Amino acid sequence: MSDRIIAVQGPVNLLNVLSVLRYERALGKQGPSDDYLILGGSFLEGNNDGLVEVCLKLASLWPFKGVFTTHGLEHLVHMGAIPFTGAVSLLQKPFRGRRIETVYLLRNFQLFNELVQFAFPHSRLSCYGDSYGVHGYTRGLTTCNPTGTVRPVDVLTAITPLESFDAIFDEHPLVQVPGSFLVETVKDACGQFTNELVPFGQKVKELFPEGASLLLTELEGAGEFFSAGLEAEYAGYVDNVLQFVPRGHGVVIKGHPRVAPEKLTYLERLLSERGYRSVSMGSLNRIPAELVVPFLGVGQVLSCISHASIPIGYLWPVEIVVGFGRERLVKSMSPAWRDEFVCNEYMRLLATRRAQQGDLSPIRRSEWLDKDGPEAPEVCLPPSTRDFPLAPLLGGATLSAGARAEGRSGYRKVPPPPVYYFLRYRKSVKNRLGKVFG
């Protein structure tokens, strides 16, 4: 029997690859195997509270044999406390004697992904892409491993295929997963968070009886792309609220899953100074935005930088405001990133509009390269003629564990898998290793 490694950097990656696994199972491509989940990449000291727990809830939707977390291993490699080869040996240790047939990775570059692919050099490499299928390439990028090269990809998978660098879809086989598998995975995943999101959704409705909009912020540190830093990024969020959220309505601030919740209090203060009441989702930021929408009763989502506008547009019949607009980007972006962000905004707008129509066909780089984004943020309205399969779940009333039809969409009750740490990082002693796995 051959085994498989599924490596993810966060909850959205896990939703993505769970949809891929379900699709492969439906095709009969999954033979007898044990599947192991490795969590890493984003689980660094001081910014991982709640991330592992969210991933473990999502992991219960698939019969993983075991779950491993690197728990800061790559951080120690980056700091020089552990050599790259030593970290690779740690990753290999639990799987010695096992035949790893396939490794599923977000991409084939960046430190966490390179550690995993070098740990299992003879396995087939399947990359599922950022968000739900944003694929880039390694050409011109600095690698993290001692060889200076990365392994070639055997296959790309994607639900919403977006070609972000070069003609990668011409260079590697692309398997597109039907959107129906994302729909069913999201439906089952929503049911995992009713205990947290139903009370929060009720709180939102009580705080903002006139209505509320959901504001999505990007990963902490996105401010480095702006010439004036984080202040310029947050000023863009505030401007979008002023322009599109009706007076009297509230704002629910949903940060990127890896944003430290306390960082969003600054944005709350900025909105308050402009006369808007808001509430941050706090630790619930760890839950992906596409799972949050049905519980809040919002009819509008402000997606200024986030790729979440694409799955939300496909899944939920809500109004979506996309982007900052070319005028703001040209004025406030660092020159090194300006052209890329302007083009990327065009790509996200194009993909969001297509997704709202139910169209998830691949978007090639040639379709958006050198295209100017919209002059100002654009409103994307859901078509009244399209049947959104999850629309009846808006409001979260039927999103409970008891309401799920077991087995209907691939969801099966499975015993929770054991969780292992490759190492324990003692926060009280900086750069000191704790107990090594095994």
Structure report:
With 438 residues, this protein is of the alpha/beta class. Helices cover 35% and strands 16% of the residues. It is built from 15 helices and 18 strands. It has helices spanning 11-26, 51-59, 73-79, 84-92, 111-119, 168-171, 179-190, 194-207, 230-244, 265-273, 289-296, 309-315, 326-332, 335-356, 365-368, and strands at 3-8, 35-39, 66-69, 100-105, 124-127, 134-135, 155-158, 162-163, 174-176, 212-216, 250-254, 278-280, 300-303, 319-322, 378-380, 419-421, 423-425, 433-436. The strands form four sheets. An eight-stranded parallel β-sheet has the order 9-7-5-4-1-2-3-16, sandwiched between helices. Strands 12-11-10-13-14-15 form a six-stranded mixed β-sheet, with helices on both faces. Helix 2 (51-59) links the parallel strand 2 and strand 3 (66-69). It starts with a strand and ends with a strand. The model is unreliable at 400-411 and 425-438 (pLDDT under 50).
Q: What profile does the largest beta sheet have?
A: 8 strands, parallel
Give the CA-based shape: globular
**Contiguous runs where pLDDT drops below 50 for at least 5 residues:** 400-411, 425-438
Gap between N and C termini: 23 Å
